[in-house]
Each structure stands twice: as C-alpha cells, then as structure tokens.
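To whoever is on call:

I kicked off a structure prediction for a single chain this morning and the downstream step that reads the tokens threw a length-mismatch warning. I double-checked the sequence; it's 225 residues and nothing unusual in it as far as I can see. Pasting both halves so you can look.
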Amino acid sequence: MESLKTQQSIAVILYDLALPLDIAGPTDAFTGANQYWRTAHNLETDHRYYKFLYISADDRVIKTKSGLKITADALLSETSPTDYDVILVPGGDGVFKALKNTALIEWMKTAYLHSKRTMSVCSGAALLAEAGLLTGKKACSHWFSCERLQAKYPNVNFDPASLYISDGKIITSAGVTSGIDMALAVIEADMGRTAALEVARHLVVHLKRAGNQQQFSGPLKAQLK
C-alpha cells in the first residue's frame, strides 16, 4: 500500500473527434477511487489520490465525436511531458489526424520515459504505436480497429479479443466501456481489490471483468443469430 500522501498525476490527452466515453469512463472510475480513498482514510475533501490535467493537442476547446465540447486545462505547448505519473490517451476518429502531430508524438515519447504508466483506450493505441511505445509489445484496441492497426504497425502484436492488456508499464484497452475495466484494474493494483470493487459498485458495473475476457460476449453473439 502506498503512502496516504501519494498522488498520481494523470495527463489526459484531448484531440478533436475523441470519443467522450473513452475520456469520461476511466476518469470517472479514478474519481470514484479518490472518494473511496478519502472515506477509507478519513482525509480532507480536497485530497485526490489521482489528479487529472486535461491537455489538448488541438485547440483549447475540443469537439468530441458526439458533439460534446470539452475545455482543456492546458495546451500541449504549455506543459512539460516530464511532470506526469500516468498518461491516458482516448480513442476516436480524430486519433488518425493526431498521428500527424509531430509535437504530440515527441511529447508522448518523453512522457513515456518519465511515467509510471501509459494507458490507451480504443484506437488511442495508434498514438502509442506511432510514438514507438508498442514496438515488440502485445496490445489491444477495439476489435473494429485491430486489423487496420496491425497492418499499419506490423511490429506490434495486436490482440482483437482481450478487453485490456498490460505489457510492462503500458496498458492498452479495447475501447469504450473496457476503459473502465482497465481503470478498475489500475485502482486494484494501487489501492487493493476492495477499493476496485467499491468503485465498480458505485459505477453500477455488473462485473469487474478480467483483461483476458473476450470483447464480444457469448450472449451478444447469440442475439445476432
């Protein structure tokens, strides 16, 4: 168990046409973990084990795929990549434009070297691969994106089945709600199983799913017949 004073700073990367649930799912789980930590240890209401900074690779206000607009705390140019314990990259159609942002790619390379964890949701894995962070590693993304990503990055072993995969200090997840599963796994590693289960209960998540659980469930397959 880490010190009660320990805080993990999380840089959440924003870009136009990101999926809002890829952003909100994990961060809501980490916010729930903050509440659990304060209650369990009788800490002040401003204590946060996980502290977020939303960093935009585009404009100050980004427009997500659903049209929801998010205002960033800072622009990429206003931040240092050496300041964060965790990097979180969401997926979305806009990630393929973000791959051409050389400043972002260089920022990611430096941030990875100084981070405790680098995490992606859905097609956000493409940004990690473009920065060379997944070379020789096993990773996952949304099943719909895996074939495209495997063709673009043949030196990465993309698994289209798993919900999330840890390889070294990188964790990639399949997308959408699996970002919550990934966050719960991180919370369990940091705070213990009880904390992760309590957060899952508050999020009304029916199961805390293991990373090797398949993306496409048996009952869902049956409904397609």
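Update from on-call: the warning came from a stale cache, not from the record. Cleared it. Sanity check on the structure: The longest strand covers residues 8-14.
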